[in-house]
Amino acid sequence: MIYAPLLTAVLFGPLVVAAPAMAQQGEPAAARSGKLTDGPTGTPTRVHGDAREFSAEVKDGMVHCTLKMAKPLIEGIFVCCELRIDCDNNPKTGDAGDELYVRGLVGSRFQPNGAAPTNGSTKPIEFARLSQSYRVLTVRNTWTWLMNDIDGTPPVVDGDTMRFSFVLARVREFGDRYKSTFTFDVRVTTSCSDQPLERVHSCADEGLAITLDGKDDEWSGILVADPGDELHPHLRCADLTGLRVDHSAERVFATVTLAEAGFAAWRQDNDVQGAPVVTFHLEPMYPRYQDPVTREMRGGLATHGTANLPFHAVVGEKTIEASFARKTGQGRYRVLVRSDVELEDRFTSRMTLDAEAK
Ligand SMILES: [Ca+2]
Ligand SMILES: [Ca+2]
Ligand SMILES: [Ca+2]
Prior knowledge:
- This protein is about 10% helix and about 45% strand.
- With about 350 residues, it is mainly beta.
- The protein has two domains: about 30-190 and about 345-355, no CATH class; about 195-340, no CATH class.
- The chain starts with a helix and ends with a strand.
- The chain has helices spanning about 5-25, 170-175, and strands at about 35, 50-60, 60-70, 80-85, 100-105, 130-135, 145-150, 150-160, 160-165, 180-200, 225, 240-245, 250-260, 275-285, 295-300, 305, 310-315, 320-325, 330-345, 350-355.
- One calcium ion (CA) binds next to strand 2.
């Protein structure tokens, strides 16, 4: 049995080698340019994350990319168009086939693209850059990704369209010297984020045993307040407006208030995927009797766990109440809460280009 594959290889080796060449004859010849299209979102509040068309062309040593979104980019949030490139057109090499990622990025994660600058003089929409990630072999003979700028032209925005270019040489460097075709996947990520709210809490008294019901009327502790008009109008259900912390003998409680309702009612969309996520960090301070904990609440969920579990959360109309188990003797905590919305629209088919095509 052990010898059978070897025997097969010996007998049919030449045929196996010939097979890929035969298979390639049936494929359409790759060109220097191509176009991908993508359907529209069915959710009106996801339109700013809706990618509709991507085209690319190899010309004068550059790969020129054009992304068309459903809406003008100025109306939206941070946009990242990422190409995951299989430089040698070989799915067996690289990470899931890919050797190089190239990204064109526009906007700020912390403000809508149309916002006026609050510090510095660059408007969010004018903040454009071009970056790459590529694989390198470490001294321990394992692969890791490095990230930095790539030569080319950072994104230029024109209404609903963003154009950027990067050097073809980078693709060829990771490519197969006998092949000029490469393929890639295109995904568009739109995102925004509310900065962490922080509160240091001392369990100096008996505290207040709070019932998690999504209502914040029994809360009386100090409010760490935050503006409620920071995120895009469609994503205000994830815009934090305040944090309070309290405790009982067995639990530490944290509640955040949100600018608008809609967190628990968030529904998945078949085109623009993703949801808001509110992350709670509980950091016990010195002397430490328990470990730090990080837990997430995802949009679309109304509850997480139950009152006796290490983490319990209940989403109300414009609140998320959470509680963590408290160890006996643990007297001080730092609580951090942040909010992220990351949406992704992925083109269903890959693009194949031939750098040498006529
Ligand atoms: Ca789409
Ligand atoms: Ca590859
Ligand atoms: Ca806020």
